[in-house]
Amino acid sequence: MEPRTSVIQKRLQDIKHIIPIASGKGGVGKSMVASTLALLLAKKGKRVGLLDLDLYGPSSHVILGVQPKGFPDEDKGILPPNVQGIKYMSIVYFTEDKPGAFRGEDITNIIIELLAITRWDALDYLIIDMPPGIGDEILDIFTYIPQARYLVVTTSSKVAFNPVEKLLKILIEGNYPILGVVENMVHTSSSFVSEKVTELDVAYLGSLSYDDDIEGAIQHPSKLASTRFAREVSTLIENQLE
After folding, report:
1. What pLDDT sits at residue 193?
2. Which residue segments constitute the domains of the chain, with CATH numbers given?
3. Are 17 and 241 spatial neighbours (Cβ–Cβ below 8 Å)?
């Protein structure tokens, strides 16, 4: 038996809520939702962790203005650096943000390692920025964090929603808890996504409108927290987390 897997639940045992932010499609703003949600919760005094599990294209460090220089401190595990009141962990601390290509076995090994060595201690929320798609990463989270509750992000596009719908069906078939679906970057009101989500008997939490100010707020957490996007994230999502 892999010895590290027995450590994972001990690392997570003092975390009240584990919320992976997932999507079957890339480019839907999943990392922006995850980073903003973690930032807002921390500003409200919650004990928050943010784990970026996008091994190929991590971006939460860019959003939050993190400069991954140097290895994190160690004390009976790796101590996640404090970023804007958030305990933050990402593969960029180990790769120095250099590109990497990983095979399936490597992916599982990296995820097990991150989960086993990171010392979160007591948290109210651990937000996990999941990679796009339905691959090894999400299957590993199913296995190693069965208590997780999933928030799924999509856009209004029928092309984007098609793989998102597949992810939802996998979550439903596996009886994995789904907090709901958020429709992101909405330009024009449409009932397409809400109707499809309702047909699956999943909660449609609402839409986040496209915000022109987001790009200018990247790497500036205080600006990000005051955007319209952040206000909408707070309204739609925070009250779903308890």
Report:
1. 97
2. 5-240 (3.40.50.300)
3. yes
